[in-house]
Amino acid sequence: MADEATPYSDLGPDTVLDAVAATGREPDGRLLPLNSFENRVYRVGLEEGTPVIAKFYRPGRWSNAAIDEEHAFSAELAAADVPVVPPLDDGDGPLREYAGYRFALFPLRGGRPPELEDPAVLERIGFFLGRLHAIGASDHFDHRPTLAGDFGATTVETLAASGRLPDYLHEAWTSVARELVGRIRERWEAVSPATLRLHGDAHPGNLLWAEGPHIVDLDDTLTGPAVADLWLFLGGEREEQQQRLAALLRGYRAFRDLDPGELALIEALRGLRILRHAGWIAARWADPAFPVAFPWFEGPRFWEDQVLALREQLANLDEPPLELPREELLPL
């Protein structure tokens, strides 16, 4: 199989089709790559029935036990009527292997991005995330990561030593990034949030909307505070964020309350996402798909913008957090 730096170089169209055929399904030759960088995901047409989605896991990222927990959580959620899209299981488990690549098949689900300007849509999203979290709180992971306040520390030190930072920005970026990581850690310790099993990357792109939502891509499922699955649906200025939060929580509280203290983690989570996105691109740069998709990463403008964004996050941490809407303070 291909080496760790270029893990998908041997995953050509024939290998993808042969892998699907090895599950007892007969591909019809139609193969459409879908937008995924961490893994490789394809829509595969079949001679009989609707197409399937074939997801090939990045070699070396997750253990089999971690992937099994992702799949088991998906199945548990689906059994509780949470509209996730679990992998197909023909009786011997959904995780399969072919030509050295681990993969899973998923049913095809269509949809469009959710209309977050519509409070009714946000309320339904909150309803299903509340149900997801109610199930998530009922058990625990043994092999998945835990989102904590020091989540970005290794990323910062790895980037600082990577040689990718322009010389004239190295000190400025490293200084502000380390300060931000320290502030995030302090905020996390102050809030000391309860944790549960989460989607892990809940954002509008991972919700396909038809008559209602299809929640997809639990590849990043982990343990963490509930607000980590909510904050990416809160866009715009503070007033708009408050309005969206109110709509989300109208649905969410059908299943559970949100600890108001967790709202103080939103800007910390935003800072972590900025840092870890840069670290992710750097870690995957040898993968040929990444320089094509992120050509600006090696330019000085990106790192100049990074310094500004990290400084802005430091300032945001000094602002008062969002508040629970008044109606959300009422007892159930």
TrEMBL record:
Q: Name one GO cellular component term.
A: cytoplasm
Where is the protein localized? Cytoplasm
Per its UniProt record, what PANTHER family does this chain match?
STRESS RESPONSE KINASE A
What is this protein identified as? Stress response kinase A
User: For this protein, what reaction is catalysed?
Assistant: L-threonyl-[protein] + ATP = O-phospho-L-threonyl-[protein] + ADP + H(+); L-seryl-[protein] + ATP = O-phospho-L-seryl-[protein] + ADP + H(+)
Q: Which organism is it from?
A: Thiohalospira halophila DSM 15071
- Indicate yes or no for the key word Magnesium: yes
Where Mg(2+) binds, per the record, is at 206, 217
Q: Where is the Aminoglycoside phosphotransferase domain?
A: 33-257
Q: Can you tell me which family this protein belongs to? A: Belongs to the SrkA/RdoA protein kinase family.
